[in-house]
Amino acid sequence: MKITVVGTGYVGLVTGTCLAETGNEVVCVDIDAEKVLKMQNGVVPIYEPHLDVLFERNINADRLKFTTSLDEGLEHGEIIFLALPTPEDEDGSADLSYVLNVSEEIGKKIKTYKVIVDKSTVPVGTAEKVQKVIAANAVCDFDVVSNPEFLREGFAVDDFLKPERIVVGSSSEKATKIMQKLYSPFVRSGNPIIIMDEKSAELTKYAANAFLATKITFMNEIANYCEKVGADVDKVRVGMGTDSRIGKRFLFPGIGYGGSCFPKDVKALQKAGSDSDYDFKILDAVIEVNDTQKTTLLPKIEAYLDNDVSGKKIAIWGLAFKPETDDIREAPSLYMMKALLDKGAHLSVFDPEAMPNIKKMFGDSLNYANSMYEATEGADSLLICTEWSIFRTPNFQKLREQMIRPAIFDGRNLYNLDDMESEGFTYFSVGRKQIN
Ligand code: UDX
């Protein structure tokens, strides 16, 4: 099939590449000429495991092309994916200007039937708006379909190629059949393509993300309470998660959720609710708890360092909002670093992928270490913000010898409490007892 993807951000790039992988001819459109040139030369603009291999293979096979020309894209595709940004407006709602501007262009330019697919996370009612904007100018038939994307950064390729489900919001039989044909290679294992109306599809994405953010936040509150009463959240987590109604996943407490989706989508749903005269009380609480959770380790670090972190060297392992990505959007590490810098601490940081992005934001205010152990050399404390695999089994003896004070503040509960005790560390984690 001939596919056009407008917008080569995270979702657009993965969508375009993975659709080319099943034999479709894909043209990706982006207004950023520099980025398009790089992609034409085979450079993947983001770090995402396995994407580079698929990218190269499909470019070489001439199935994946890039252009800055929307006209060229619209000429090419029978299915036009909109994978455009929907940034957070000042009031927390999703800004639809990119989506609606491109829709207007589509209305003016298409000459034959197209299925326009909303892939971006958009508020309920957006498909209807897109439909109207295109219809105002269109001279041919078209359908608008809502097809939210559920992929996770770090697992995006796998999530796209082997989705647990595909949600399609469509009220046109013709468009539904086209979407089913497009996605059938991805659900050969029997996972469903769930067809529903456009509004329900749009809400499904927000509801799923808000639910997961709530699940994590609930565990963060249980963890905080565990600390008060001397219970161990790891044990509670396993005890709860083995109930299949609850499930084992997304129950890991820590220093809060971040990323490009959860924070933005939870706020957008809250705002959309209030616009429709509905007050999502649970989402107010989720936002508030998550904000506080990001710096939950700060008072502990301060207390340990004699209530004065100024001039102290603190090493930080893990800066990305989660492992296997260089994405730092809304990463809890940002909040910890800002707070510690404000208090005069010297920070020596290391992350396997996110250092260039952090450098752009923090400039000379941090020391950028070349390795995890370079960061901890002479440190008064180690703070862990992201659970990259390489941090899971460090050389504890080396750490102990290198550090001025062997103290670890672990925002991701990486280590076993008994090990920390026998290794002789002062160890603070989330929802578990403190080891002195
Ligand atoms: C999320 C959704 O999972 C995905 O379906 C949607 O399409 C986009 O948003 P992503 O933001 O890539 O994906 O990351 P995810 O793995 O879901 O993690 C989100 C945040 O929650 C991270 O900050 C992570 O550290 C945190 N998290 C996750 C926890 O704190 N505890 C957990 O148990 C799971």
Automatic annotation (TrEMBL):
The active site is at C261 (nucleophile). InterPro entries: 6-PGluconate_DH-like_C_sf, NAD(P)-bd_dom_sf, UDP-Glc/GDP-Man, UDP-Glc/GDP-Man_DH_C, UDP-Glc/GDP-Man_DH_C_sf, UDP-Glc/GDP-Man_DH_dimer, UDP-Glc/GDP-Man_DH_N, UDPglc_DH_bac. Gene3D superfamilies: Cytochrome c1, transmembrane anchor, C-terminal, NAD(P)-binding Rossmann-like Domain. Pathway: Nucleotide-sugar biosynthesis; UDP-alpha-D-glucuronate biosynthesis; UDP-alpha-D-glucuronate from UDP-alpha-D-glucose: step 1/1. GO terms for molecular function: NAD binding; UDP-glucose 6-dehydrogenase activity. GO terms for biological process: polysaccharide biosynthetic process; UDP-glucuronate biosynthetic process. It is an enzyme of class 1 (oxidoreductase). SMART domains: UDPG_MGDP_dh_C (SM00984). Residues 315-417 form the UDP-glucose/GDP-mannose dehydrogenase C-terminal domain. It catalyses: UDP-alpha-D-glucose + 2 NAD(+) + H2O = UDP-alpha-D-glucuronate + 2 NADH + 3 H(+). Keywords: NAD, Oxidoreductase. Pfam families: UDPG_MGDP_dh (PF00984), UDPG_MGDP_dh_C (PF03720), UDPG_MGDP_dh_N (PF03721). Its EC number is 1.1.1.22. It comes from the Bacteria. NAD(+) binds at D30, K35, T86, T121, E153, K264, R329. Substrate binds at F150, L151, R152, E153, K205, F250, L251, F252, P253, G254, G258, K322. PANTHER family: UDP-GLUCOSE 6-DEHYDROGENASE TUAD (PTHR43750:SF3). Belongs to the UDP-glucose/GDP-mannose dehydrogenase family. This is UDP-glucose 6-dehydrogenase. It comes from Ulvibacter antarcticus.
